[in-house]
Every structure is written in C-alpha cells, then in structure tokens.
Amino acid sequence: MGGERRLGYLLILPTVLLFGGLVAFPFLSAIWLSVTDRVVGSGGNFVGLANYLWLLRWPDLGLMIFNTWFIATVGVALKFVVGMCAALLLNVSFRGRTFFRGLFMLPWAVPTFVAVLVWRWMYDYHSGVFNTVLMRLGITEHRLSFLGNPDLALLSVIVFVVWKGFPFFGLSYLAGMQSIPNELYEAAKVDGANAWQQFFYITLPGLQHVIAITCLLSLIWTANAFEMVYLLTGGGPSNRTQVFTVLTYQLGIVNLRLGEAAAVPLMFFPMLAGLIVVVSRYMLRNQ
Predict the structure, then answer these.
(1) Alpha-carbon distance 213 to 215, whole Å?
(2) What is the pLDDT of residues 97-118, one digit of tens each?
(3) Domain count, the chain
(4) pTM of the predicted model, to two decimals?
(5) What 3-state DSSP class applies to 201?
(6) Is 277 contained in some domain?
(7) CA angle 70–75–77, rounded 5-degree value
(8) How far apart are the C-alpha atoms of 231 and 233, rounded to whole Å?
C-alpha cells in the first residue's frame, strides 16, 4: 500500500512542478512585485499597499472599471445572441452548409493584428467603409469619428469584440446541438410545440452547461483582452476606452513602473475569481 502511494506521488510530481513553475511562482512573484516600488533597472523597496492606494486615488479608476466590465458583459451578451443565431442557422440542413460552416469560423481564425488593421480602415474618418456607406445611404450628412469620438469609441470596440469572438460561441453551441436527441424534437412536434417552444424547452436546457462555460470563458478572455483595445484606440480618447490591461501595459512597459503595473491586474483578480466560483457552483448544482 505504501509503495502504491509513493508511486502515485511520483506520477503527479511532474504536474505539481509544472503548476508551481508556470502558475504559482509567477502569481506569487506578481504579488510581491505589487508591494514594491520597483522600476526597470532597480531592485525596488517594500512599500506595502502604497501602489494599491495610488490606484484607488487615480481619478479615472471608476471609468476604467466601468469600461472593462462594460466591454466584457455587453460583448459576451451580444456574442451569445449572435453565436446562438448562427448555430441555429447552421444546424439546419441546406445546400452548401459545409462551406458556410467553414466561412463562419473566419473571424475567429484571422490573427487579431490583421483583423484590427482591417477594422481600423473600415472605421477610418476619411476613407472608411462605414462612413462611406452611411453617407451614401443618407443616414448621416457628416463623417463620424468612430475611434476618436468619446461617445462612439467604446461601442466601436464592442462591435469588433463581438465580430471577433462570436464564432467561438456558435461553434460550441452547434456542437452541443448535435448531442441533443432528435427524438425530443419529434415528440415535441407531435405534442404541437412550435419552433419557439422547442427552442426554449429543449434546445436551451440541453445547452445550459455549454452556455455557462462559453460565457464564463469569454467573459474572462474579454475582460483580460489587451491587443483589441490597445490596437484600436490605445485606451483613448480621454481614457474613454481605458481598460486595466492597457493601463498595466502603459505603467509597466511604457513608464517602466513595474510595481504599480503589477498592482493593477491583482485588483481585478478577486472579481474574476468570484465569478468563476459562482459559475462553478451553478454548474455543480445543475448536474
């Protein structure tokens, strides 16, 4: 019995070492870094919670938190709706369905940097596609500064986030729909259920765990997204699209203030951890 236990410990040792080296050590190092005044080229001194207090006194902290969660929550909600509609359409048998399923994955497959370049051109004030179409249709008489107007920049970022991420939702829901027995739909039709009733009483309950996982993962990914916001707006104009990942980059890479940069994501960690706990309990309760 003792030999089997030692063998078990030996077998899980590589996983423990890998977890410690790739997760635990960097996380603990970040915590230590966040309580120092370290800058690039200097060892830094222990300052306690001074970096966190500086962030709490930062005038645009509330705006940054709002932007981060507004982009994440609204983006995930819209990705859920668009992804579900796309999955329902692609789940119907029609000619050319395989081709459209492949085309459907294009936004997710395109590298983010390339996609941002295309969307910056479409948002362009002078020669952008959106301004050209809106003016030719007579919807607006003046060109719109999608990325330079504080009232439009945040919505423009969300539109790009939804376009880039909805294929993940659609693919996951399409795969989940394949596992729902057709007998349930046939029985519902015999009982006189229409398409909406079949969707609400068969499809949605059958996808509840897939929906919870996709929404949780996408919320975490979107809240932690850096390149989409930074390459589109850089956090501007006037910090209107500032999110904590961009602020971390500006503090740590641009200004070389590593201690303050480490404190920013750690302030958001309890929110994300709490969200994971809530969703995990929901999934375990509804197994």
Answers:
(1) 6
(2) 888 888 888 898 899 999 999 9
(3) 1
(4) 0.88
(5) helix
(6) no
(7) 105
(8) 6
Residue 66 has pLDDT above 70, yes or no: yes
Closest by Cα among 188, 209, 210 to 199: 188
Q: Could you tell me if residue 43 is inside a domain?
A: no
Residue 248 sits at φ, ψ, to 5 deg, of -60, -45
Residues 6+ apart with CB under 8 A from 267: 52, 55, 244
Residues 6 or more apart in contact with residue 23 via CB below 8 angstroms: none
Q: What is the DSSP letter of 181?
A: -
pLDDT tens for 169-204 read 999 999 999 888 889 888 988 888 898 999 999 999
Cβ proximity of 263 and 43 under 8 Å: no
Q: Which domain holds residue 107?
A: 63-256
On average, the pLDDT of the chain sits at 88
Cβ burial, residue 159 (10 Å; 0-12/13-18/19+): middle
Record the tokens describing residue 36, joined without a space.
Answer: 């120092």
